[in-house]
Write a structure and sequence with these properties.
Length: about 300
């Protein structure tokens, strides 16, 4: 009888242990769901991997972004992967504005229909839908007025002169370079673009990204979705992005416009910062590089 009782108590103990593990696992899953919900709809963490926003944002800054202001969404990717998901987006408190620092889904390189990498970029929004962008010797003008550039931003020591085209610049065949650029108008929904055989290459990828087939035939006539057309009506609002470190920033000057739906959040504040270029193997020096004066600093 004593042996039987002993076996029963061991059994109860095993059941109790399994219940505790199940509860712990359930709590972990619930926590992950809550974290994903908050990150999707309200706040997103972001780390700075490059120097394109120096010295406004430093390499190693870890920041929070306000997603709710632009309309938070359910997860756009399977967590920790680049696999896309259909997503639901909430109404925005307001649309992105000129001079906001934003994170957004990379639209792809200039001639890519689909981005080769499903990543998010961080830049300053300098052009809203309908704005005219022009850069003269690194000085940015928006709608004819000098853009108020932050004091922390970095300029090249010597601008590339006008007339020296960079073949990688957007749009293709523009003849511009990164320091002398434009004028270029940022497309807005409802704009009507006149299409010619001369500007076909400028609009080819743009129209295809909006989901249409465009081709030019031997007679120089342009066809959209199989129908001859000399115009195209823009279907979305777009924005123009630039890095504060203009001399070292891969931005809209190189890959073009960013669709409104691709803009995820507005930079909020830095919650931690250290020199992430120092290896973890040199942990003492890494800890010593913590930038205490940047923790809690608003991002503007």
């Amino acid at each position: 009888m004593a042996n039987t009782l002993g076996k029963k108590s061991i059994k109860k103990k095993k059941v109790s242990t399994l219940e505790e593990k199940a509860k712990s696992f359930g709590s972990l899953v619930l926590t992950l769901i809550v974290v994903l919900f908050i990150q999707s709809f309200f706040i997103q963490g972001y780390s700075t991997p490059t120097g394109s926003m120096l010295n406004t944002i430093l390499i190693g800054d870890k920041m929070f972004f306000n997603q709710f202001i632009y309309g938070g969404s359910t997860p756009r990717n399977i967590p920790f992967t680049e696999i896309r998901l259909p997503y639901l987006q909430l109404p925005a408190v307001r649309d992105p504005k000129r001079n906001d620092i934003v994170n957004f889904e990379f639209p792809g390189m200039r001639d890519e229909l689909v981005p080769s990498q499903n990543v998010q970029y961080l830049k300053r929004l300098v052009g809203e839908p309908g704005d005219k962008i022009e850069i003269i010797n690194q000085v940015l003008y928006v709608n004819g007025e000098k853009f108020p550039w932050p004091e922390a931003g970095i300029l090249a020591p010597k601008p590339t002169p006008k007339g020296q085209p960079n073949p990688q610049i957007f749009p293709k065949g523009s003849g511009w370079n990164e320091d002398n650029y434009g004028p270029l108008t940022v497309p807005k929904k409802g704009d009507v673009v006149n299409l010619t055989k001369e500007n076909f290459v400028e609009w080819d990828t743009f129209i295809k990204r909006e989901g249409h087939k465009i081709e030019i035939k031997g007679d120089g006539k342009i066809y959209i979705d199989g129908k001859e057309s000399a115009t195209y009506t823009v279907e979305n609002n777009y924005y123009f992005m630039m890095g504060d470190n203009r001399n070292n920033s891969l931005d809209s000057r190189f890959w073009g416009f960013v669709r409104r739906e691709a803009i995820v959040g507005k930079a909020w504040f830095t919650y931690f910062s250290w020199n992430s270029e120092i290896s973890f193997s040199d942990f003492g020096r890494l800890v010593g590089s913590i930038r205490w004066n940047r923790i809690g600093k608003p991002i503007e």
